[in-house]
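Quick start: read one record
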Amino acid sequence: MSLDLRQFHGIFFEESFEAIDTMESILVAAAGRIVDMDAINALFRAAHSMKGGSATFGFQELTDFTHRMETLLDQVRHGQRPLDTTLIEVLLKAVDTARTMLRALRAGDQPSLEELAGADLALRGLLEQADPIAAAPLGDAPGRPAPAAVSARVEPDAESDRLTTTPPAAGWRIRFRPQRDLLTKGNDVVLMVRELARFGPLRVHAELDQLPTLTDLVVQECHLSWTFDLEADPGENDLREVFAWVADVCDLDLIPLAVAGAPTGEPVVDRPVEPTQSDPEQISAADRATDSAQYAADPGQQPAAVRNGSIRVSTGKIDALVDLVGELVITQSMLLRLAAAVGPTGESLRQGMAQLERNTRDLQEHVLSIRMLPIGYLFNRFPRLVHDLAQTLGKPVQLRIEGEQTELDKRLTELLADPLTHLLRNAMDHGIEPPQVRAARGKPPLGTLRLAASHRGGSVFIEIGDDGAGIDQPAVFARGRALGLITGPESPDVEHLLRLLCHPGLSTADTVTDLSGRGVGLDVVERNIRSLGGRLELATAVGQGTRFTIRIPLTLAILDGQLIRVGAQVYILPLVSIVETVQLDPARLRLLPGGLEVYRVRDHHLPVVRLASLLGQCPDDAAHGRPLLVICEVDDGDVALLVDELLGQQQIVIKGLEGNFRKVPGVSAATVLGDGRVGLILDSTELKRLAGARVGA
């Protein structure tokens, strides 16, 4: 029965897209800088992985195309070609083409030969050029250090056509003892031998002492061990890198030849193994077969799921697991409520429920952590965007990325891609000035963009800032007045400015371009961020720059909530937004002209929101003493929410409200309470805005 390779397509495409992203980030970072050998090797391995994988699945056009990329990068890593600006731009276009081909193949279509032609022609043109440094010794090649010691020399013998070697001054004996399941994991010893042979002359000795009898032979298992004598000294780290992919399924000993002595036993081959040829037009069937087994064998760039011994799991399965844990939390809350009603005889039940609550919370945290990813996975796509825009606009810009290890729910990282793209494009087009303008203003010609992430409380803050001209507020207000958005006196506060900028159709650009002038962008950003339960904030100074800040929750799944009673209804406030709770003292309550109520707390006056009136409930403070004020942190300061009673804290499983009902002002989401009722999760920022609008009316 033949093996259906289509079942492995998902893994191939996922890892190939990761390789593409890796190449793109390295190439963008390499522009105008000295690139170390680790980065060059990572580029080569990424191209090699795609070539081998595409050969496995019969994607011939992609195989040939990526082989040409691999050949150019192989020349770079061997010091035969510089990684200069021309090559970087050609490889970036090739990366784009490879990504397009992968998307077409994943969709079941054939790649467009027209799209392939331009990038392929550029690769072929570079490969056909006479290389001015091809004949230079490795130590003389730009960016390539000389090997520590390579005294072995391979020369053809005219009479026997054999290759002979001079005695090495240095080298390594490599003892490789793989576990029996080496081959079942897609590894190929031949490919490792080829990588070793790239360093210099190599003698291979196979050890047969573990070979079973024919009747006991299991063909899927590896029964051999090998000893390699390498007559070159590339360094221990480089040698271990060859075996990094199989480090967890083998025993590996590296012994200097000076210590190991003469070779042991007879070599399996009677000539040193030669490195494979790099002719882009000659990829043999054997080459494709051996490469295919290691299409993801990239020890430096392989996904963390492989390096850490974990497995890949689809997002759908993780989401289903999160939903099930959420239902478990709701059930546990119901049982805890029932246990609390049991009399003194139920002490054991209450203790068991307390233990169940702790275990459920731990399970919940661990399941949610599966969905958390470093935000660097999102940030890494933007250096290429900035690089391309800088060339298009003629504005040299450096992008500083900070806090890329900040973790965020995977779904949120996906949904944030478009808003961040809009904000970065705006910063490049509207914020950063052309270099001649910056010079006239005493600024360095090189502009700076800053993309940073950090945790604060239960939220993630993402900042997108530039050191450009700042927002021309008079121009924005003038445009707003022309569109009829401003009818009264202009408000100088930043909130008013941000609302104008986020209004659909407002643009201060004089001409329509591919980047601006259509009045779309910030309204989409603001709407998308609000749909995630987040907020958009703005800070700007003329001549100094602009900073947008996105504040979003860590996850869209679960939060710690404070249950409150307003009238006969139970509501939830996110615990992270609560600063403190105080009992209402009428002497500290003041009514300002215009109808706004404020409450004095330690010499600060906070606006008061009477939730009963705002939510249409009848207050019931007579039976429970004086009402309580829950002071919550909001975007532009604190607000005091007047409630009837605090009912306790509980982990809340967030349920979307709009998908099952409709958008409710002042409510961000809903949940199921322990008694089976639906509880509404309140948005304190929105409540403050609604109360202010009611007072203003």
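Residues 131-167, 264-309 have pLDDT under 50 and may be disordered.
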